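subagent[fold] <- orchestrator: predict structure for attached chain, return tokens only, no commentary.
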Amino acid sequence: MNGQVCEKAGAFVLTNNKMTFMMGPTPDQSALAIVRLGGHREGAETAWECAEREVFEESQMRITSLTPSMTFYCPNTRFDIEIELKPMDENNYLSFEPRPLIVGHQNSKHSITPIFLATSDSEPVPSMETKALIFLTRNDVIRLCSETLTLNEFQKLGGEVLVSQQIDADLPLRPFGHLIMLSKILEQYPNVISSSIFQ
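subagent[fold] -> orchestrator:
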């Protein structure tokens, strides 16, 4: 990871034993994208400071870091090829504090994006730029990455959503790269995030 620049950072945030993601229409309005909380780093921010600020701006949640037992590297997050994940050697992520759950690339091999694991006691509130927040159980994460559900169907199954703007609930939910990565981790390494905090 030496010589690479952190341009973005984000977090998987646990609140009330569920994981919080942003949700909103895709550009072509054909589906509802489920994406991680996070965004672009500003000024001299550390990666963690970027994640803290972005999460607060998007959800009003103040976060506390959690330390995963493993960190994973993802060389790609594109949809046209299979997303790969592999455990990282400790020496490759020591520049990050706290330890991230995932370190990956998005648009450039020279730009890395750490995704941290965090918790929050704050009441989640979607910002003006956030169409909705969706709260996922462990089983929800795996289900949404293996079958297609509309938002209506998800809510009828007991799924929890906070909506700030009108959304077509008949659109299918579409997991984006970080949710797919999380699903792979939960299936292959279920003990990395304890079931006592993520049910």
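orchestrator: received. Logging for downstream: Helices lie at 47-59, 138-144, 151-156, 177-188. The mean pLDDT is 91.
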